[in-house]
């Protein structure tokens, strides 16, 4: 189990990047959802043993990462948000170099090549092993990053914004790969894309401004607002008024018309709006906008003292 207790990180300034994060994460895919700048990357770097917290602890199966990261690193696989590659190397050469940096390589060159081949095969990149990395698509580069992260069969894999910038086909490929990896280990997925969590995670947390505002599952988050989401069409002028007077969770153009979804806890929608099934996107936006509420286990509760 990955246990995060009372995690605080204050940067000079002071800037409070994390403000007392508590999470207990079992095997499987766990999502960490929040906007850019919420503190997700800071949390990932602390869990990976790359950044020291101001206070609090992170333990993996009873071993404290914050005290002895060098002992835990062999059990970790990490794919940061921005992963640098040498474009002039082939995929195989780049992976061999990364494995050497991690201290994971065969006793001779042949066995190292065999290990690279096995890893590239696992992420479906064997066909591009001898192509220059500069010719790889964004999704191929992400899968190459995953290949180095899974080397050594780590207990915990951390992936930070892995689908950002990927086209739909590449995103689906990465979804399948991450789901397979989560079958027998902990995979911690940090993202600002709600679809990533909806597709992959049976449980997730929401962080905003360094604070934990939700620890729940997609089904419970949707159930918490079921019967409160309504949809209808409005003109451009009406949309501006609606944004001022109602809680709009989505406004998109469909065939030139404004299709709008609103959150109405009292069940009193605008004229012409009809009830629709709640989505995780709706639930996430409600969580983010309800600054004076806490959402835990899918149940909305007032925060002590009205604090966020």
Mean pLDDT: 88
CATH architecture of the largest domain: 3-Layer(aba) Sandwich
Number of strands: 16
Distance between the termini: 28 Å
In CATH terms, the superfamily of the largest domain is P-loop containing nucleotide triphosphate hydrolases
Number of domains: 2
Which geometry do the CA atoms define?
A: globular
Radius of gyration: 22 Å
Class derived from helix and strand content = alpha/beta
Task: Write the element-wise H/E pattern from the N-terminal end onward.
Answer: EEEHEEHEHHHEHEHEEHEHEEEHEE
Give unreliable regions as ranges: 292-308
Oligomerization category of the chains in this entry:
single chain
Tally the helices: what do you get? 10
Query: Major β-sheet, in short?
Result: 8 strands, mixed
- The name CATH uses for the topology of the largest domain is Rossmann fold
Tell me about this structure.
The protein is an alpha/beta fold. The chain has 2 domains: 2-220, P-loop containing nucleotide triphosphate hydrolases (Rossmann fold, 3-Layer(aba) Sandwich); 221-295. Helix content is 32%, strand content 30%. The chain contains 10 helices and 16 strands. The strands form 3 sheets. The chain has an 8-stranded mixed beta sheet with strand order 6-7-8-3-9-10-15-16, with helices on both faces. A 4-stranded antiparallel beta sheet has the order 2-1-4-5, with helices on one face. A 4-stranded antiparallel beta sheet has the order 12-13-11-14. Strand 1 (2-11) and strand 2 form a beta hairpin. The longest helix has 14 residues, at 109-122. It is globular. The two termini are 28 Å apart. The model is unreliable at 292-308 (pLDDT under 50).
């Amino acid at each position: 189990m990955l246990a995060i207790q009372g995690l605080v990180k204050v940067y000079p300034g002071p800037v409070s990047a994390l403000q007392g994060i508590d999470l207990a994460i079992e095997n499987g895919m766990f999502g960490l959802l929040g906007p850019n700048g919420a503190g997700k990357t800071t949390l990932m770097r602390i869990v990976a043993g790359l950044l020291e917290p101001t206070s609090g602890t992170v333990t993996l199966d009873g071993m404290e990462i914050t005290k002895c990261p060098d002992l835990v690193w062999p059990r970790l696989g990490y794919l940061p948000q921005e992963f640098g590659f040498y474009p002039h190397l082939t995929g195989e050469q780049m992976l061999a170099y990364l494995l050497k940096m991690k201290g994971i390589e065969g006793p001779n060159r042949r066995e190292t090549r065999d290990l690279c081949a096995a890893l590239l095969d696992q992420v479906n990149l064997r066909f591009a092993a001898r192509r220059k990395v500069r010719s790889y698509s964004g999704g191929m580069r992400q899968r190459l990053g995953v290949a180095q992260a899974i080397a050594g069969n780590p207990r915990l894999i951390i992936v930070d914004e892995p689908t950002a910038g990927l086209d739909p086909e590449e995103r689906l490929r990465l979804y399948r790969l991450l789901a397979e990896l989560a079958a027998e280990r902990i995979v911690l997925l940090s993202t600002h894309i709600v679809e990533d969590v909806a597709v992959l995670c049976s449980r997730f947390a929401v962080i905003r401004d360094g604070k934990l505002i939700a620890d729940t599952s997609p089904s419970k988050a949707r159930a918490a607002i079921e019967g409160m989401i309504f949809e209808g069409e409005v003109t451009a002028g009406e949309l501006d008024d609606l944004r001022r007077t109602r809680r709009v969770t989505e406004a998109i153009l469909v065939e030139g018309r404004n299709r709008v979804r609103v959150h109405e806890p009292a069940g009193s929608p605008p004229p012409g709006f009809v009830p629709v099934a709640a989505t995780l996107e709706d639930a996430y936006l409600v969580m983010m906008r309800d600054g004076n509420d806490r959402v835990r286990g899918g149940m909305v509760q007032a925060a002590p003292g009205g604090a966020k």
